Input
Amino acid sequence: MVFSSVLFLFIFMPVTIGIYFILPKPAKNTWLFIMSFIFYAWGGMAYALLVLFSTIVNYITGLLMDKQEGSKRKICLAAGVAYNLFILFFFKYFNFVVENIKFVLGPAGNNINPPLIPLPIGISFFTFQIMSYIIDLYRKEIKVQKNFINLGLYILLFPQLIAGPIVRYIDVEEKISKRSVDLDSFSHGLKRFILGLGKKVIIANAMGEWADIAFNDISRLSTPMAWLGIAAYTLQIFFDFSAYSDMAIGLGEIFGFHFLENFNYPYGAVTIQDFWRKWHMSLTTWFRDYLYIPLGGNRKGAVRTYINNFIVFFMTGLWHGAAWNFILWGLFHGFFQIVEKTLFGKYIRKLPAVLGHIYTMLIVMVGWVLFRADTLGDALKYCHYMFSYNIKDINIFFSVLDNWKIFVLVLAVLFSVPFAAKINTLPVIQKHTTAKKYADMVLYTMLFIISIMFVSGSSFNPFIYFRF
Output
């Protein structure tokens, strides 16, 4: 079940919210836990039971760890982390490893036929959340959660279960047991959800249609179509991913949770380092706190810092998917991170903002080719068409141009940078607060109605985070 579906919008969401607010406080967490389990089970009961079992394992691990000190406490941590990484490896990376072993063995590996293991939706998100709980508990940064329903709610909470942001237990520890919702926070959460829904079904899906045309038949790409396709995918993945974060943050606020932001206009960045401070911030923070800093961060000299950067970005790529394309995408970004930490970074940061922005977006877009292409060979072909003059099959480029998508493209570009936010801070807008309040009500109502029309009238509604 996804947020941008008729089932979620007209049945699951209103039923969950409606009953939640009429229940007494002691029953609210139980209700959210049950509905979150149903939400995930909609995609497959077997995997919902897997998440439930992982919750039980980590709940017991936490209880045992809380009673131990010294080496026994470390054993509990090691066992918990090992279990979570094994689950992630088995379901997400086992087939990938076996296929690579078969490739290395050549003909001798033809007899190796592992079973096809379907990927549980959002496994990378909820695994990282679970591990943050037991790691922070080991560090004594949080208290053990003795109520199973409360811990289960943290892990299974449906707003951010399958597409993030990655929520650390330390950030919601207090809200799990004690939270309240007033009319203003409910209204703000609802508006945030509607904004995300509109970004997803109006902008991301439209750009996704262009991207699919380009990437699904690379052999017929012209240079203009290659650039249109990657520009469209660049906008699709931002508006799709940030839309799910908006909807998750909005839904969380409706129930009294306050999740941290996940995006901060990353396409306005002027360096790759700046980009990663603004893109998928919950993942960046997770790797910083649980991998980069424990490896030594930048405290052990330049060479060790570069190695740590490569490790982090190797893992960042691998986290996104079990394929060499994702790994190379991560290392590609890691390389430019290191370049910017060397002497070259001094000159890059001195570039005029416009040139810095062009440099950053060019690297990001080439990186997205690696991310979107089905194979490394396809990615190399795609880049070849981008940077060579080829007008063969250019009729495809002209045939896909239509007024609606061009209009959406302009909107996407404008709203991928702080255009609307700056307008909202203009003195003339801030001065008329009452008029702004009613204007917001009208605009969000219209956006919701238009979004529902798109949800109901279109069969193109991809969920691009399935591989995560």
